[in-house]
Amino acid sequence: MAKILMIYPEKCTGCLNCSEACSYTKEGRFRSAASRVHVYTWEREGISVPMMCQQCNDAPCVSVCPTGAMHRNTGELIVQYDLSKCIRCRMCVQACPFGNAVYDSVTDAIIKCDHCQGKPACAAACPVKALEYVDESVSTRTRSKAFAQKFKEAFQEVA
Amino acid sequence: MFGWTGTILRVNLTTGEIKKEPTNLKDARLFIGARGLATKILSDEIDPTIDPLGPENKLIFAPGPLSGTMAPSMGRYDVVCKGPLNGTVAASNSGGSFGPEVKFAGYDMIIFEGVSKKPVYLWVKDDQAELRDAADLWGKNVFDTTDLIRAATEEEAKIACIGPAGEKKVLFASVMNEMHRAAGRSGVGAVMGSKNLKAVAVKGSGVLEVARPEDFEKAVMTARKMIENHPVGGAGLRLYGTEVLVNILNGVGALPTRNYHESYFATADKTGGETLSAKYLIRPKGCFSCVISCGRVTKVTNPKFAGEGEGPEYETGWGFGADSGVDNMDAIIKANYLCNELGLDTITCAATIACAMDLYECGYITAKETGGMAIRFGDGETMVKLVEMIGNREGIGDQLAEGSYRFAEKFGHPEFSMSVKKQEMPAYDPRAVQGIGLQYATSNRGGCHVRGYTISPEVLGVPSKFDQHTTEGKPNLVITFQNLTAALDSTGACLFTTFGIGADELAALLSSVTGVPYSTDDFMKAGDRIWNLERLFNLKAGLAGKDDTLPQRLFEEPVPAGPSKGEISHLDQMLPEYYSLRGWTEEGVPTAEKLSELSLS
């Protein structure tokens, strides 16, 4: 079954362990721009939200890529990036509605999450499970059940 | 270069000159970084007798060699200078991401010297650094300053700044970074204000590499596991924050209450971490690379004290709680928010207000001196009002802004100041916990718990249990904790990592990151070296062995009630042994042999 990276912003503490782990896994060093996950923090409100490639089914980055560098292999969930085919036109950067494909001048490449090919370092490094690598169906079920729980409590109160 | 970036940024505020210079790597090995290395530079460059608020003082922002790496909970930095509250060497550390950002910009530290003619802030973007006009920012609180500077520089810049309290040189003004994180103690914010430096804004896009990746990965995994498996480091602090200590310390009769008249607060639970989590906590927060997440994002809805922000920590909850006789959590949290916005150290601020309450209740200050205010224990509303008055130096707040010692002395009763070397003691009663009293008395910055947190063994039983009421073995325990903490602080690590790991793991991390082989002994010796260096600074600044003491109240007034009823501090039974074990003379001066052994002569 396909696995996805679920983001739980309500649990995120803004510690950046995910981004550190990502950069270290990809480059063997710490460089924030090398991280495929980016954590936005609103300091006043104390809210942090990790962002990364959503591996869209109808991926705009794949649609606009003129060379097939950004592609999806049949039957796979991950949008793959093939550096050897990339001409750095940055069409994918412009097309991504989330801003999750980024051109990196240091490596002269597009930077985008690839789930570490099945072993995402960010989720392993997250100390509070704000990022979890889970089966597609399980992930959404957990979230919908959390809401169901609220309904249940509301019903119990009026009953 | 590994661990250290090899470059220091030096900013002369008088001339406006900004230059880069190489880090002295020989000193870096000996003093590690952050607190240790910055203190070494301060000691070399300033005369310890100078006026802390004069142009000769320097102000250093220094992360450590582990800051910026994935070493767990180790992204801290220190603000180092001569402190204006009590003239000792000041090294106040803070979390968040500011320290790592300085490293990613390429610097081991930023040194400020001189005084700017007009308000400025420093904007550092990698190798570019410039002083910018801060006239429009002067007078703004910490939150607004942070937002305005980010809007003027970069959205993701990290900002360390002062609020109105630092500008007005409140002697316990803090430096705040990312709004809620404080380099709180000793008045480092007043030094920043005296230099007309409103803020330091940093954005770094550089690279940090580790010397021995395989060892590093192993050391990170080991340290993380040990912290995460620890009941305090792994679960307790995230669930309840440091405020969990309120009920624990009250339970052993060591929660100083009403300016240390008592050591047990009957309604303490209303101010504890369990109450905080149940009623106010929105979510836990973590600093850079943190696996502990003790930070508290909280909200108060009571219209009288409404607000949102971070905190309180235990010390804050105690100071504005038990020590002020206040059990209204709404008021306690509001006082904390105001300290963050104005840029005030919560410990000294709260303890100074508690001292004023004490003086008022005893009739040593009256409505005449307070401008008509009744300052009584338990009055949360007045307490909150006083925090604002202190931060803005309004009315009686102008005198309270000098700290409890000067305030109480002014009214003829310095013995009402619960301070050591004029810095207020925090939230553990030395009558009820003997070792912490020795720690307060000998701490290189006066009343302070985080220079040698013997509460760990004496109350929490970490790593092993010592009887809180006895003095046997305490001098050695205090020295071990002081040396360990001095080295730990200098790496950039958070003290709370010791709820899980110790010198072995820290030495392994430091070795793998820097490539310099530190054995556990090397690491502890570096701590000893840093401790003695700080001691030498203070002795040259005019302090002496006679200052290694506690307020008379702790020797003369036994704890009146609660689990520690009848106890007093037995400092005199511990201090001579402490000096001797330290390799100091009977007057508390490091001997020539000791200094030579530590490469300090």
Structure report:
The complex is a heterodimer of chains A (159) and B (601). Helices cover 31% and strands 19% of the residues of chain A. Chain A contains five helices and eight strands. In chain A, the strands form four sheets. In chain A, strands 1-8 form a two-stranded antiparallel ribbon. A two-stranded antiparallel sheet of chain A has the order 2-3. In chain A, strands 4-5 form a two-stranded antiparallel ribbon. The model of chain A has no long low-confidence stretch (mean pLDDT 93). Chain B has 601 residues and is of the alpha+beta class. Chain B contains 25 helices and 17 strands. In chain B, helix 18 (434-442) crosses helix 20 (474-491). The A-B interface holds A 10-11, 13-17, 20-21, 24, 28-33, 43-47, 125, 127-128 and B 68-70, 72, 97, 104, 143, 146-147, 178-180, 205-210, 213, 224, 228, 238, 282-293, 295, 297, 308-310.
Distance between the amino and carboxyl termini of chain B: 29 Å
Query: Ranges of chain A with pLDDT <50 over ≥5 residues?
Result: none
Give me the secondary-structure category of chain A: alpha+beta
Mean pLDDT of chain B equals 98
Can you give keywords for this protein?
heterodimer, A: 159 residues, alpha+beta, two-stranded antiparallel sheet, 31% helix, B: 601 residues
Task: Map the helices and strands.
The complex is a heterodimer of chains A (159) and B (601).
Chain A: E1 3-7, H1 17-27, E2 38-42, E3 47-51, H2 60-64, E4 70-71, E5 80-81, H3 91-95, E6 102-104, E7 109-111, H4 121-125, E8 131-135, H5 136-158
Antiparallel strand pairs in A: 1-8, 2-3, 4-5, 6-7
Chain B: E1 7-12, E2 18-22, H1 25-31, H2 34-45, E3 59-63, E4 77-82, E5 89-94, H3 98-104, E6 109-113, E7 120-125, E8 128-133, H4 142-152, E9 158-161, H5 164-167, E10 175-177, E11 181-183, H6 188-194, E12 197-203, H7 213-228, H8 231-240, H9 245-251, H10 273-279, E13 281-285, E14 295-300, E15 307-310, H11 314-319, H12 329-342, H13 346-361, H14 367-370, H15 380-391, H16 397-400, H17 403-410, E16 419-420, E17 423-424, H18 434-442, H19 455-460, H20 474-491, H21 503-514, H22 520-540, H23 553-556, H24 575-582, H25 592-597
Parallel strand pairs in B: 1-6, 7-12
Antiparallel strand pairs in B: 1-2, 3-4, 3-6, 4-5, 7-8, 9-10, 9-12, 10-11, 13-14, 14-15, 16-17
Helix pairs in contact in B: 1-2, 2-20, 2-22, 7-21, 12-15, 13-17, 18-20, 20-22, 20-24, 21-22
